[in-house]
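Quick one: structure tokens for this chain, please?
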Amino acid sequence: MSAAIARASRLTVIPPTYNDYMEKLNISVIVKRFSDESAAWECLEEMRWPNGPVCPHCGVIGTAYFIQPKNGHRTTSTGKVSYRRLWKCADCRKPFSVLVGTIFERSQVPLSKWLLALYMMSASKNGVAAFEIHRTLGVTNKTAWFMMMRIREAMKRGELAAPMVGTIVADETYIGGKKKNQHQQGRKRPNSSKGLAGHQPDKTAVLSLVNKRTGEVRSRVVANVEGPILEAAIREEVQVSASILHTDKGSWYNLLGTEFKNHHTVDHHRFEFVRGDISTNQAENYFGQLKRSIDGTHHRVSRTHLPRYLAEFDFRYSTRKMSDTARMEQLVSQTAGRRLTYESL
């Protein structure tokens, strides 16, 4: 009898847990997992609150209790069924949900569609077009664009991010089409950016810094590629005195380069691209991916919104060695405190 019980225990099928799903997360698993809106709420709670509910009002962890809905379910003011899971903090006595203070707050889009959009944007190497989100998730094109801008806001690195330290590759590029390819009406408009992008006034200048050891990249739009502008940008992101700088022969790096531990250059004009371990290939690789994706997926990005697109590509490049699952979890952890309204865009 005991042997039969032992065999039965070995054959017992243990239902998959949240962590089991996350270990093998892909689009088919997500569609199956999040077909139920209530399951999407529970999944987001576990991703955002691995140690228990966190009150967004007072910051206390683990003291909140779940408020059971009356009659088994909640309804909105219009009578529709609501899947919102409501908690109440035992310290400050204020109610909250997992959406409060995040990019999802006050959104009318079902949470299951939000999680699908999060996965698509974090897993796609070339990015996702707003029209593809519109077709895939069944939302309007305007809603899809706004959802993606909110997600890009979450992909931005924190304001308190530590400065980069180590061997830093610095390089610049230009984003935008050629003036000769513009529509005739566009060519007649005064060029307000004339002279702002160095020797390519019809394009937008972008500076990228890549940490060779960690693989992290930080990019930003700059007014031009002159020395003072680039120096100020690099000082904000790098611990200069403790780092080594790798660049091309651009003269705008020379003055700041003297403040680094070492400043090594390669001369592209003489077809020197690598000398030992000195090169700017890491930044060039990033620019190649960035430009191919903008051209092939987004086709055109305005100067106004380019910083958020750079944040998106920085996030994916910096986490490229993570699995899609880990990258999505990282993205979900950054959704708090990043609320974005349509009016601000």
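Confidence is low (pLDDT under 50) at residues 1-21, 190-198.
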